[in-house]
Amino acid sequence: MTSQREGSPFAGLSTIALKEAADHMNSIRIHLVMLLVLLTAIGSVYGAIGQIKATVSEDQFLFLRLFTTAQQPLPSFVSFLGFLVPLVAIALGFDAINGEYSRRTLSRILSQPIYRDALLTGKFLGGLLVIAICLLDLWLLVTGLGILVLGLPPSGEEIARGLAFLFASFVYSGVWLAVALAFSTIVKSPATSALCALTAWLLFTVFWPMLAPLIAGAVAPIDPLDPMTAVHQIDIQQALARISPNTLYGEATLALLNPATRSLGLLFTDQLSGAMMGAPLPFSLSVALIWPQLAGMIAALLVLFTIAYVSFQRQEIRA
Amino acid sequence: MSPVIEARGLVKRYGRLPAVDGIDLTVEKGEVFGLLGPNGSGKTTTILLLLGLTEPTAGSIRVLGLDPLRQPLQVKQRVGYLPDQIGFYDHLTALENLAYTARLAGLPSDEANKRIVGAMERVRLADVANRRVATFSRGMRQRLGLAEVLVKQAEIAILDEPTSGLDPQSTQELLELIRELASEGVTFVLSSHLLAMMQTICSRVALFRKGSIGLIGQVENLTSDVLGGSHMVEVEFENADLVKVLAGAPHVSGLTPLGTGRWRVDADADVRTDIARRIVGAGGALRSMTIRQATLDEVYVRFFEGENHDVAA
Ligand SMILES: Nc1ncnc2c1ncn2[C@@H]1O[C@H](COP(=O)(O)OP(=O)(O)OP(=O)(O)O)[C@@H](O)[C@H]1O
Ligand SMILES: [Mg+2]
């Protein structure tokens, strides 16, 4: 049916995306989440600065340490971001489609000369736009704070790695926005879809890291006589952990912000031969290292968006 | 005359239950066409099918010569729709809401602004145009929905229960508006349960029953089909046998006793003089005689007599 329809599926797309973005920017809901993110970001960077100053070292990538250094009890900026960015995305997307139903605006909007595709995609792009703006602002803020307090500008490579980190964060947010969007299409009530998305968030950011080793232990028990079974279990555990976008994002940021990272899996000594321990990897190799993680997140995003798309196309418009 | 809406053998099933079950419908340009019928009889479903907002299970539709399924954008460009339950973005003003749909409809912004201002005046919302819709009453929202249809300057306006929530004055204004636009060549498809209003405004109506059209045509023709005549005369008299007296009388199609010496005479013309002459001529004494034009209401009641109105399936 969709294959033979006439006219552009993108008619109205930019109008919808811009309206959605403007709505978000004016919404109290988003202001609150942003405030939360901002406060924790400043807190963690402040902690990191204190830590870095206390342990002045000859670090080639002092600037990147701003993002990764944790000072008890505060986690690092990246772990905060990994934890809170999904919340922002969920706040942006949990009622995208079912909210239109419950406000009874859907049939009015869809009786305008646009396809449903434009509405769904426009809402997604509008959310992405807001996320992009917020992440960029946050990144500039941290970088600015760093320059001010540490008193030295970041090197070219640090900026490149920082931008790559920004991009990875963007993709990660996109995954969670797609999660929220999918729930908003499948679940009829906005309150329920918010709960579903928040459950997924808690599952993946809090419980999954605990569950993955348990499941791996049950699936692949270690035979004390065969050391390879231990390796096998760790492999499985890692594969399981990588189901969570949080793990993928964590690995990507680790490799980008900590240039000494040489591998994201189990490391055998022969893989290290010829490599000086602790020597930083060039930027391009770090990117190559996280490529599977990035691709995995983008694939998850596309799958989730497709689920939302298919489910929305099949729905009756009667509201 | 060229039909602007043509539906043939239209069927829409939800699961196995048919909501629309084989409808044939033709609406001409400039007509005001009424969809009538009990709740759940398939009026809204038919409207959604015309707009391409839902897919038919079987049958074909042409709207302005276009297929709403394959060319939905062109159809929706030229057809305005007022849903039965209308909603707006509460956090935006009335003006912003209309500006948004006008942008979606592809209107350039200066043209859109001009039309929006005009439409808001037309529905008497000009002085609250900059208020958030959250503060609007039910009827104000309904009028804002009408303004949206006006802004589109559609060739066909499909209004699903447009008077729901409207006060009497707004209802009258809506009727005037419909008449005016119809005379300019805009085609209207209306659904409503206000039969008296539909009788005054519709050039033709279709009576839906359980997903199919039970009756279709001009109101006058329906009255004679269902009631046996468009005129009803109530007669009160003494000392005459009406059945004998009116045997062979022209235009008379039915006699119904209402009580002793009281009868209702169905006819397709004003037969009062003839009745009076015949009763007096037969030596009877005429007490009173009143004539009523048959209403759509009576057609409706008679047509659905003895049916369970709650169930459409
Ligand atoms: N999404 C749906 N799934 C299943 N059945 C539906 C759905 N929407 C409508 N129906 C059924 O289709 C039938 C026709 O409904 P429709 O809304 O067209 O009636 P209507 O004539 O507009 O009634 P009303 O006067 O109450 O507005 C009803 O029996 C209804 O239960
Ligand atoms: Mg209806």
Your description of this structure?
The complex is a heterodimer of chains A (319) and B (313). With 319 residues, chain A is an all-alpha fold. Chain A has one domain. Chain A is 73% helix and 0% strand. Chain A has helices at residues 13-25, 28-54, 62-68, 77-93, 98-103, 106-110, 116-150, 156-186, 190-219, 227-241, 245-257, 269-272, 283-313. In chain A, α7 packs antiparallel against α8 and α8 (156-186) runs parallel beside α13. Chain A starts with 12 loop residues before the first helix and ends in a 6-residue tail after the last helix. With 313 residues, chain B is α/β, with parallel strands linked by helices. Chain B has two domains: 3-88 and 141-223, P-loop containing nucleotide triphosphate hydrolases (Rossmann fold), CATH 3.40.50; 231-293, 2-Layer Sandwich (Alpha-Beta Plaits). Chain B is built from eleven helices and 13 strands. Chain B has helices at 43-50, 72-78, 94-104, 109-122, 138-152, 168-183, 195-201, 219-227, 242-245, 272-281, 296-303, and strands at 3-14, 17-28, 32-36, 58-63, 79-82, 156-160, 187-191, 204-209, 212-217, 231-238, 252-259, 262-267, 285-293. In chain B, β8 (204-209) and β9 form a beta hairpin. In chain B, α4 (109-122) packs across α5 (138-152) and α8 (219-227) crosses α11. The radius of gyration of chain B is 24 Å and the shape is elongated. The two termini of chain B are 36 Å apart. The complex binds adenosine-5'-triphosphate and magnesium ion. The site of adenosine-5'-triphosphate has 13 residues of chain B, from α1. Adenosine-5'-triphosphate is lined by residues 14, 19, 37, 39-45, 84, 312-313 of chain B.
